[in-house]
Specification:
mainly beta, OB fold (Dihydrolipoamide Acetyltransferase, E2P), three-stranded antiparallel beta sheet, 2 helices, 37% strand
Amino acid sequence: MKCRTGTNLEVVFMPSENLAITWRRLPERYRLTGSACENCKTNYFPTRKLCPKCRRKGRVATKQFSGKGTVYSFTEVASGPAGFELESPYVLAIIELEEGPRLTAQIVGISEKDVKIGDSVEMVFRKIQEDSAEGLIHYGYKFRLLRKKSA
């Protein structure tokens, strides 16, 4: 590629995030690990090092979430952002975990007409995206609807 001055420019592909950040976020992405304040009993996701309610008085510990929750809100993404174009359309939701925190995640295997606010969901481990054919493949949590058993 040439710039205005006629100099050749090399186009370098930039991954979505660096390797160090990817490794630090593995517990959150792979196991849905957050934190809990032992003082006020509030749960947080993603992990916090300091409780915003108790400040220095709070003792924050690692918390493993169950992965079960309910749909708090949702939308169908018709035109996905860069890296997610091939997945469109997909359902993106705010999930309220049983333990309290809310997080944004994709609900897999459904369309907008199949989901409603209050539906029960559970976490599943899935591929999120890949940086390139030879780059990092990012895995993490998504959610699926829990079907009610018919009588």
